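We were asked to recover a plausible sequence for a given structure. The inputs and outputs are reproduced exactly as logged, with field labels preserved.

PROBLEM: sequence recovery
POSITIONS: 378
GIVEN STRUCTURE:
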């Protein structure tokens, strides 16, 4: 290395944060060392921001990512480091079967020891709101094993494409969004098909796709479809037929949305389970880790949406004017307060809320509540 490069090489730290249904325990972090980026290897830390609400009360906030490495100019490393930090998120999402949003770069700065002038960058990101979202705690040991298995697999790039589509499906894991989530699940299925074919040839001692097609009793031009239906989707004809029809109808616009939604809603969960298990099988995940990641609490997909809450009741009193002066409508001022936030022995996050309502209604009108409901999005 030249003297000039010695003097111009600097240390930089980039910090990102964003919404996530994946949670880390307090004081827990996932450390990834020497991960490749376009400007050289970086070290990455993933953790959860735990926000102080009361003296002894902490609640989970955003996913927090810190990337550290070397470079010459802050502006050059920001995008490079950020892309490296984002690259592992689909695997973390797959491991926990939970949605991760889109973290943004919040801070970037020169942290070179022994210098007196350091470049600094900050992007305004609104603080976390008081709205409660569902979350799922990560199994860090199992996630590291999954990351290692995928990184060392000869079809790693193809698997990562399929995993990223699975992550996008989780972004839409909410009632009423089945069409979009299923569309991404179908793209994930397509992305991992060739990897499954190669894995199946190896397992059966076959050298060519033609041999596998013959072994499966399929024409060569139908091998991809056969592998998808019979091997990845485990022979679930309805799941394959509905998913293909919904995906093609959505992509090419020849089906109405009501028909697509009907096809999607009944098989979305099954489709997700088949694809996720297939990725674990293809990458050669060991039996114990496979058992952990396909058991509770990871077996069911979890989107990132606030808990839906309803209050129902009656407005009591005479008069046509129902709203408080200055308001257009009668309104309940809703103030939820987190009373406790604890992790149970089985690793589940338990949050207790107190709901406070203030009725903003006209004089002479009262509100009589008769039900309060809280629903998980699914």
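RECOVERED SEQUENCE:
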């Amino acid at each position: 290395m030249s003297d000039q490069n010695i003097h111009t090489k600097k240390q930089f730290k980039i910090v990102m944060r964003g919404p996530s249904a994946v949670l880390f325990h307090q004081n827990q972090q996932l450390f990834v060392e020497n991960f490749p980026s376009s400007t050289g290897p970086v070290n990455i830390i993933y953790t959860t921001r735990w926000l102080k609400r009361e003296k002894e009360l902490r609640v989970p906030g955003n996913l927090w990512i810190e990337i550290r490495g070397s470079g010459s100019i802050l502006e050059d490393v920001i995008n490079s480091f950020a892309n490296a930090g984002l690259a592992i998120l689909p695997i973390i999402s797959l491991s926990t079967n939970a949605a991760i949003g889109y973290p943004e770069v919040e801070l970037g700065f020169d942290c070179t020891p022994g210098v007196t002038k350091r470049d600094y960058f900050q992007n305004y990101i609104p603080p976390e709101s008081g709205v409660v979202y569902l979350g799922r705690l990560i199994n860090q040991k199992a996630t590291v094993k999954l990351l290692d298995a995928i990184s060392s697999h000869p079809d790693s790039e193809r698997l990562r494409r399929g995993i990223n589509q699975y992550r996008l499906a989780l972004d839409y894991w909410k009632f009423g969004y089945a069409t979009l989530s299923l569309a991404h699940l179908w793209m994930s299925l397509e992305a991992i098909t060739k990897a499954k074919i190669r894995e199946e040839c190896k397992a059966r001692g076959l050298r060519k796709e033609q041999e596998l097609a013959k072994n499966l009793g399929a024409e060569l031009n139908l091998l991809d479809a056969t592998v998808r239906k019979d091997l990845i989707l485990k022979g679930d004809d309805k799941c394959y037929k509905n998913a293909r029809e919904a995906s093609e109808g959505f992509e090419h616009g020849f089906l109405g949305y009501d028909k697509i939604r009907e096809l999607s809603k009944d098989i979305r969960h099954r489709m997700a389970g088949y694809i996720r298990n297939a990725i674990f099988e293809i990458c050669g995940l060991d039996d114990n880790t496979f058992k952990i990641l396909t058991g509770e609490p990871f077996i069911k997909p979890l989107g990132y949406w606030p808990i839906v809450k309803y209050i129902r009741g009656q407005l009591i009193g005479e008069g046509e004017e129902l709203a408080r002066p200055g308001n257009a409508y009668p309104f309940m001022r809703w103030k939820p307060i987190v009373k406790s936030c604890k992790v149970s022995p089985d690793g589940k996050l338990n949050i207790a809320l107190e709901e406070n309502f203030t009725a903003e209604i006209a004089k002479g009108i009262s509100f009589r509540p008769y039900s309060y409901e809280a629903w998980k999005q699914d």
